[in-house]
Known about the structure:
mainly beta; 4 helices; globular; Neuraminidase; four-stranded antiparallel β-sheet
Amino acid sequence: MPTGVTVSRTNRIFVNFPRWGDDVPFTVAEVINGKAVPFPDPKINDWPGRNTSDPTQYKDQGQNESHFVSVQSVVVDPANRLWVLDTGSPMLKNALPGGPKLVAIDLATNKVVKRILLPSSVAGPTSYMNDVRFDLRIGSPAGPDGIHGIAYITDSSEKGPTGFVVVDLATGQSWRKLDDIDAVKPELGFLMFAEGRPLYKTEPGKPAKPGIFANDSLAISADGSKLFFCPVSSTKLYSVPTAALRDKSLTAEATAKQVALVTGKESSDGLESDAGGNVYSTAPASGSILKISPNSNFAGGVEVSTLVHDPRLLWPDTMSLSDDGYLYVTANQLFNQPSMHNGKDLRQKPYTLFRVKVDAKPVRLQ
């Protein structure tokens, strides 16, 4: 099942398939003539751990570093490079040694040009790297590879700290911010819905419990000054100044004080932004995409409207805005997984990638 989608400056489309339990021969793909083709090649996708009796215990760090273990997100940066965000966490279990990483692929050559490993002090065993956004105007000066900028990553861990990871792309240095503040955690008592039904984890032999998900969705403002974010299990959209996340000397308390409530909304599993200052939010409970727009005449300074509602949007997840004004979105039927139906798989293939014309330009911070 797909989670991420991204579109290059020349309208090449890339998707990814995390290794959550299905047989996933390749976890990153380019969509060519409607078909998913391993990208950049089958070899890097052929992680040796997937063929073992228990992939969650695969400890060959060198192989985990050199292969895609379980990719949650793919994003094309403003320089038209594809960045692959690898959770290193097969089966949604603990992150494996050497698994969590950011990998850059030059789309002119389809070759890996940088691999940034996230150390256990930043992406520990219970971490789950989820989504990423880029600003290439700032950060340390570029090294010999010519790559520089800052990446902001959400950690949606259910078992450990949930928050943000910030990465200096030139040096590869990374650090954590906003761990376990209320804004990044699921709302207390929250109950997720999909297709009009409450969402529970109902695994065989275990008591049912509400499906709750922490800090996940991410978008960057048109000028790069703010990050917009929200847990899936939340009805609120928050923002935080990116400068506060980059400032390693700023205390946790001082950073948390800069988090602001933007608006209420439906729960979301994906955010995207455009150059006009709008934020788009998927809404799995209603099969919709919301548009959150600046509006000085509206209470709170924003207006939330429904951009798309369609019963075929069975758990809209990640979005990507292309240069020609289309908003792409994956629909992966996450709520019909076996873990949410007493071991019965209710997903119906094929999965679908949709797009809708919004006549907006993507944010390109370069």
